[in-house]
Amino acid sequence: MQYHFQLTVTDILKRKHFENIQFIAGQGGLYRVVKWVHVVEVAKIKSLLNGNELILSTGVGWRDDSQAFVAFLQELIDSNASGLCIDMGSSVFPIPQEGVALANAHQFPILLFLKEVPFVEITHDIHSHLIHQHYQMISNLEEYSQQLNKKLLSIQHHEEILSLLHDHLGHTVLFRMKGNDVQVVPSSSDVSYAFLVECQGKELLQKRVAHQSIQVLGQNYADLYIYAEDEEISEYDTLILDRTSTAVAQHLLRDLYVEEKKRAEEDEWVNSWLHGEHTEIEIADFLKSSYANGKCKGGTVCICKFHEFPQSGSDKTYFKLLFRTIFEQLGFYALSIEKRNEATFILLNYRETKNQKQRLEMGIEKLLNSEFIKKRKTVVTVGVGKLIEQLSDMHRSFKTAQETIRVQNNLAKVCHFYEDLHMYRILSMLNEQSDLQGIVMEYLDPVVRYDKKYNGKLMETLRVYLSCNGSKQETANRLFVVRQTLYHRITKLEGLLGNDFMNSEKRLVIEFMLQAYDYLVSTKQMKQYPVER
């Protein structure tokens, strides 16, 4: 059975005391909704109306003044009144034609009682009906909510909820999940998503469409619409739509949890993928058997390191769902594994590669600003590895993501992407290919040993002196030492590094070695000389 709980002018005309009436204007407004009935005998009424009132009047305040009647009528139209009923049974008087023309232009119903009618009985009858209708609406809403709850316990697909919505209201239902085609119930309907968009610009049609966004994990996951073909959307329709959207969101969230559990079983395979143990063919076969089938355009690895990782299983699952939801809306498919205080994600790119980094940046920003992170007041370090084209190279991205996490903890600024590490990237490659520590100490060993032995500050002085381009006055000011102390330190540096350490080529190498030294210390690879900055 279909319910709408909407009393229209047409419904009013079927009730008692409306047998002897004459329509003189606005017959196109029979669809207008009536929420209350007022008896009005004054000309100035606009401030007393809230909209959708049916006005009963004998015309005492304006029957002898055509201009007053037109002004009165204009106020009713501006206030979105439902119609005007005039009692002509006790005293017949002419209705100004300019008023009739105005009502017709706005499809505002004007009808005449040809016999005297008791207004008090009309208002009592209609108000009693409206109050009863309101109680019935509350009862039906509760019953519908119970039906939804029962559905949620047994359904396999959200289409069953959409069908329940259609059966209850009789309206066409449209459902659009992000990245998917529009679903229409009933399927025989010719209403399209494009038509709904067109309705937004047409006032009459706009009143026949209601929309509710479906939020899952704080993200706009889908959109639900209803379209009423022959009537306006009622308050009851919007309440039912709201309850339905909540039920759909709960079902989708349950599906995501089930999906996450299945993915957890794939951890072992994903872990071996991250360590370079699979070929392109093996990876393609794996993706075909999972949810990620489609034309993949490379990807990357993203590591999220928590200072205090959520301890409960539900929190960990929620974080992974939140991460996946955010990045899937940005064109990435995510596979994850969890290890102690880290969550590692393989992000497969299914959109254009030219804006891949910008989309990753957007996703990281949304993730770090999410309510989940803010409420727990935990610090998360995010590291994104090298962007790769061949999926069999994912282990390279994984290794560089780990490098990004290690280095980022000691950088002065936040740097989520491996490719933004610049000099640190070169140092990382040099460290892989050669004995970087040995090269560094060939140049800096005397200074490091001196500071360690005498608790000196030659390394600090060297850094500042180089950054000031050899300006002794600026260096002294930045170190907060007198110039004589600075001269003594520079003399000591010349003795340890050579008098030519400020010559262009040697200076360039020493500056590079200082950055390399900092890199080794930050990544805890300077084992023999653990001297801090």
Question: Mind explaining what this structure looks like?
Answer:
This protein is an alpha+beta fold and 533 residues long. It has four domains: 9-127, Udp-n-acetylmuramoylalanyl-d-glutamate--2,6- Diaminopimelate Ligase, Chain: A, domain 1 (3-Layer(aba) Sandwich); 155-259, Beta-Lactamase, CATH 3.30.450; 265-421, Reverse transcriptase/Diguanylate cyclase domain (Alpha-Beta Plaits, 2-Layer Sandwich); 432-522, no CATH class. Helices cover 50% and strands 15% of the residues. The strands form three sheets. The chain has a five-stranded mixed sheet with strand order 1-5-4-3-2. A four-stranded antiparallel sheet has the order 7-6-9-8. It has a four-stranded antiparallel sheet with strand order 11-12-10-13, sandwiched between helices. Helix 11 packs antiparallel against helix 12 (356-368), helix 16 crosses helix 20 and helix 18 (472-479) crosses helix 19 (483-497). The longest helix is centred in the N-terminal third of the chain and has 36 residues, at 119-154. It is elongated. The chain starts with 8 loop residues before the first helix and ends in an 11-residue tail after the last helix. The mean pLDDT is 84.
